[in-house]
Sequence to fold (122 residues):
Amino acid sequence: MERARAVAQLAYAPYSKFRVGAVVLSDDGRVFDGVNVENAAHPSANCAEATAVGSAVTAGVRKIAAVAVACIDARSIDHAYPCGRCRQILSEFNPEEVYVTDGGAEFRRHSFDELLPFRFSL
Ligand code: THU
Fold:
């Protein structure tokens, strides 16, 4: 959670001012950071989780053990959860657990099934 909070400081979020940091832990113990990367053409933005997953997959990761997400500008931890698209992106690599936090000290742990039950797969 500390790493996700720290990496969120590097988010490029001049439009929303909502900085997000994500840290993916692979099944072989490596960690990959990601931040949200916004764009003047707003739909071209990328979420922090998608950035981190892209980095992990590029390094050969095919199974994610866990992901930590820090929405450091969220108004509460209830507003610090991964969006639906990011849940689906993560789902492809079968994460077991997801940790979420806002800018504060509290964090929550969820099984991935809690966040995306009855999920789509081929
Ligand atoms: N955002 C993420 O990075 N991850 C999420 O799961 C939810 C939203 C980003 C997208 C946008 O840059 C900003 O947060 C506000 O929506």
Observations:
- The helical segments are 2-8, 48-58, 84-91, 112-115.
- The pocket of tetrahydrodeoxyuridine is lined by residues 13, 16, 18, 20, 36, 38, 45, 47-49, 82-83, 86 (CB under 6 Å).
- The chain has one domain: 2-115.
